[in-house]
Amino acid sequence: MNRDEIVRTFLDFYRERGHRPVSDSSLIPPPGDPVLFTTSGMHPLTPHLEGRPHPLGRRLVNVQRCLRTTDLDEVGDRTHLTVFEMLGSWSLGDYDVAQSLRWGHQLLREGFGVEPDRLHATVFGGDGQLGPDRVSLETWAELGVPVELTRGEDNWWSNGPTGPCGPDSEIFVWTGDGPPRGTPGTDDRWMEVWNHVQMRYHRHDDGRLEPLRQPNVDTGMGLERLEMVLGGTRSVFEGDGLRPWVRGVGGLWRLDEVPLRQVCDHLRSGVVVIGDGVRPSNTGRGYVLRRLVRRVLTTLWRDDPSRTLSDLPTEPIRHTLDGFGQQTGVGEVREVFGGEERRFRELLRRGRPLVRRRRSRGPLTGEDYRWLHDTHGLPRDLVDHLVGELG
């Protein structure tokens, strides 16, 4: 299945079971939300998970664009992306997690044709406040899916240190060649695809858990990961959303596999962020965009300082804007990338002699880093890059 077929199959399955589709939201949360970007499908629905009635009812389904900076350093492997799409379903005080797991298993097996021996599940095993999730454990056993209990926070989901949270059950799919081996904890070819969360609690600043007004079920499945599973490919970078970037960037510059993936991910993510109205700055969302672009440039210039983002082909930029339904023009994206490239080149030009002088006295200290940042605007990761240039 390609991306559109996967989305259609997912939405139709839940529509047939009484779920109403919710429109995709921007990466930018509404005013007053302290989080910089939408990080999950449940994020825009937080007030309704806490008890506010939703105008479309108690069963919802959607596809939501998400951005997570927590995974930034893992980008470059087979499965992690900065911006990704999440397939989500919700029960707002309606059916329980057992029903959610049964439907999830049915969709994977019958709707998407995933072989039963390629499935494995993990379940919350309890901690100092709550006992193990026996309902999910028994449901997976009834369905014949291998399942294991985990300890601590491995099967606990929250969108931050406070707010809605609860135990979850994670579904893994075997992505290796040959028959499955080991477990998700012993072999990384088991890839997490779908998470079913019992959103039943609100965590307070002091760590105390208070039951929500209604028990909810919130599920999220990475679209790009599911596309990888169904396509039998080696990584998410071979799917519909990333393939034009790999083709365009790979045809322009010779990069090893991991740097190529990082550059493609960050450029695509930058396009989506720009398309949602963000522009580079030194704080907040603008700094995230700036960091993405500068990480790309740092990687490209490590081998060849003459490389420039002005050489980027139009096709992947247009493909991404169209795929996310954004009205920003390709020319505007190029202007943003070009302006940030010029600023970064100038910053490097000014920064090299400063770092060289400080480094000549010995290893940089915390005071050196503070002076370079506060006086000259050189962030620590850039200083470390310049130190690396000096050997």
From TrEMBL:
Q: Which residues form a coiled coil?
A: none
InterPro entries for this protein: aa-tRNA-synth_II/BPL/LPL, Ala-tRNA-lgiase_IIc, Ala-tRNA-ligase_IIc_anticod-bd, Ala-tRNA-synth_IIc_core, Ala-tRNA-synth_IIc_N, Ala-tRNA_ligase
Keyword Cytoplasm on entry: no
Q: Which family does it belong to?
A: Belongs to the class-II aminoacyl-tRNA synthetase family.
Signal peptide start-end: none
Key words of the record: Aminoacyl-tRNA synthetase, ATP-binding, Ligase, Nucleotide-binding, Protein biosynthesis, RNA-binding, tRNA-binding
BP-aspect Gene Ontology terms: alanyl-tRNA aminoacylation
Q: Does the keyword Protein biosynthesis apply?
A: yes
Question: Domain Alanyl-transfer RNA synthetases family profile, which positions?
Answer: 1-391
- State the EC number(s): 6.1.1.7
Q: Which GO terms describe its molecular function?
A: alanine-tRNA ligase activity; aminoacyl-tRNA deacylase activity; ATP binding; tRNA binding
Name the GO cellular-component terms: cytosol
Q: Which domain of life is it from?
A: Bacteria
State the protein's name: alanine--tRNA ligase
